[in-house]
């Protein structure tokens, strides 16, 4: 069994009627992953003994017994959690992340951990100690990153939903490249307790699925205040599924000039068509400008790398995971373990970040970058004073070939030019499938005010009902 044509509602119906048992669902899921993952490599760990909880109440709990994938930088008690790094390749956590704890209380079935760029640093899932993940639409293409394993697993029908993390675009860019929906909630909406930290002022956990409603159902469960995470808002969490099935009449939709200028040809056409669909349905379209877009990539890489250099100090060969052999003294333990344990991209970020924070550079780099960040936030506030949502392309191109950007870090970094701003401003943002360009999916990005994920679900669901992209099967998955 695969889930190419399923969602949480359709599976729940079968479970509630008794035409499918949760045990069989779990077994089938694992078998299908094992069968299809040879070509995809979307998983780092498959829980072959995956077992649903007992006495599930399918009538009152839609998530009961539903297999869900978890990105491998989210801590799972007793299940190996590697962040796709050699330095953690044997790490078995002794506690659960808050999001896992909440999904456990909702009785989902855990089937394993998905592949990613090491420590979530990358845009292609090629920076994984466990090898690259392949795009189910074309195995020669990247699935995007860093949540490429989660995206490929959903697109390939291995699961109906997956958790990912997004620091600069890692949920939205792979969602766009795989033709699925993926949402990064507002900063402060979902607890990061138990998310292996990359850049703490930007990191967010979010959800990926074929249908927007599926993500709304999962977000309902994982969102909301948590004593373990002091950056979390205590405000009430709405029922996000209430935004599904609405129309968009009167909704004020801002289209970012710089984002539209960043795409051309067929890609521009596909995105424009989706905007026209909103307009035809009565949405009010306003052109707006985010003039600082040209600075967001350097701005983000200074801030994210600085925070990463600090967060990753804890991996010292003493407390967690890999320790190098033949160290002559304590310093040697640190240096050797970190040199052998971290991959090249992670080391590059640590160097960049340590430099940006160093005495002579702090004012010139980190402080300046923080000021630019504030200007970007102000820019969004101004737009949202007159608009409900912002739309535009999620990426500048469809998925690229495996191997084509890996040796050019700047090119790889530029992949995030359209997604990074939402992280810098802490606003919620999602990617919803817009159409195909040369046989590969592209995404429409939808952003909203802080804590207004609801409007994003409303627009995404509307777009999705209109273009019915979810009915398409990735080329590599057709038998
Ligand atoms: N691609 C970006 C980076 O490499 C964003 C990654 C992410 O969102 N985790 O930093």
UniProtKB/TrEMBL annotation:
Allows the formation of correctly charged Gln-tRNA(Gln) through the transamidation of misacylated Glu-tRNA(Gln) in organisms which lack glutaminyl-tRNA synthetase. The reaction takes place in the presence of glutamine and ATP through an activated gamma-phospho-Glu-tRNA(Gln). It comes from Lactobacillus apis. InterPro entries: Amidase, Amidase_CS, Amidase_dom, AS_sf, GatA. The keyword rRNA processing does not apply. This is Glutamyl-tRNA(Gln) amidotransferase subunit A. It catalyses: L-glutamyl-tRNA(Gln) + L-glutamine + ATP + H2O = L-glutaminyl-tRNA(Gln) + L-glutamate + ADP + phosphate + H(+). The active site is at residues 71, 146, 170. GO terms for biological process: translation. Signal peptide: none annotated. HAMAP family: GatA (MF_00120). The keyword Transferase applies. It comes from the Bacteria. One of its GO terms (cellular component) is glutamyl-tRNA(Gln) amidotransferase complex. Heterotrimer of A, B and C subunits. Belongs to the amidase family. GatA subfamily. One of its GO terms (molecular function) is transferase activity. Its EC number is 6.3.5.7. Pfam families: Amidase (PF01425). Residues 28-455 form the Amidase domain. NCBIfam families: gatA. Keywords: ATP-binding, Ligase, Nucleotide-binding, Protein biosynthesis, Transferase.
């Amino acid at each position: 069994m695969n889930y190419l044509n399923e969602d949480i509602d359709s599976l729940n119906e079968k479970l509630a009627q008794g035409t499918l048992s949760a045990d069989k669902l779990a077994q089938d899921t694992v078998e299908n992953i094992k069968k299809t993952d040879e070509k995809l490599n979307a998983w780092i760990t498959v829980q072959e003994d995956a077992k649903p909880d007992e006495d599930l109440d399918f009538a009152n709990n839609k998530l009961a017994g539903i297999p869900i994938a978890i990105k491998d930088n989210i801590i799972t008690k007793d299940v190996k959690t590697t962040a796709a790094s050699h330095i953690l390749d044997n790490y078995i956590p002794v506690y659960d992340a808050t999001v896992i704890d909440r999904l456990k209380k909702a009785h989902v079935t855990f089937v394993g951990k998905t592949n990613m760029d090491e420590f979530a640093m990358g845009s292609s899932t090629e920076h994984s100690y466990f090898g690259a993940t392949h795009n189910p639409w074309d195995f020669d293409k990247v699935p995007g990153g860093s949540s490429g394993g989660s995206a490929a697993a959903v697109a390939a029908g291995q699961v109906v939903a997956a958790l990912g993390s997004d620091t600069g675009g890692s949920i939205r860019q792979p969602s766009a490249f795989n033709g699925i929906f993926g949402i990064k909630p507002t900063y402060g909406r979902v607890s990061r307790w138990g998310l292996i930290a990359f850049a703490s002022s930007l990191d967010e956990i979010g959800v990926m699925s074929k249908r927007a409603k599926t993500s709304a159902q999962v977000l309902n469960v994982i969102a909301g205040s948590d004593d373990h995470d002091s950056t979390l808002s205590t405000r009430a969490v709405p029922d996000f599924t209430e935004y599904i099935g609405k129309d968009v009449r009167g909704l004020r939709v801002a289209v970012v000039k710089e984002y539209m200028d960043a795409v051309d040809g067929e890609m521009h056409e596909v995105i424009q068509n989706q905007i026209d669909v909103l307009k035809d349905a009565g949405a009010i379209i306003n052109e707006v400008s985010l003039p600082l877009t040209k600075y967001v990539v350097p701005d983000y890489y200074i801030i994210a790398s600085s925070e990463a250099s600090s967060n990753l100090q804890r991996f010292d060969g003493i407390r967690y995971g890999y320790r190098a052999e033949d160290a002559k003294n304590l310093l040697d333990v640190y240096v050797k373990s970190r040199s052998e344990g971290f991959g090249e991209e992670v080391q590059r970020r640590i160097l960049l970040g340590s430099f940006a924070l160093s005495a002579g550079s702090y004012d010139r780099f980190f402080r300046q970058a923080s000021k630019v960040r504030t200007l970007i936030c102000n820019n969004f506030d101004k737009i949202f004073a007159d608009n409900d949502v912002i739309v535009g392309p999620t990426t500048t191109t469809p998925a690229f070939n495996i191997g084509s950007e890996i040796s050019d870090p700047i090119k790889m970094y530029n992949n995030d030019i359209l997604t990074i701003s939402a992280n810098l401003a802490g606003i919620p943002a999602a990617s919803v499938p817009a159409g195909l360009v040369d046989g590969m999916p592209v995404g429409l990005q939808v952003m909203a005010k802080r804590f207004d994920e609801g409007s994003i679900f409303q627009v995404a669901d509307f777009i999705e009902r209109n273009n019915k992209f979810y009915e398409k099967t990735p080329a590599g998955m057709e038998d």
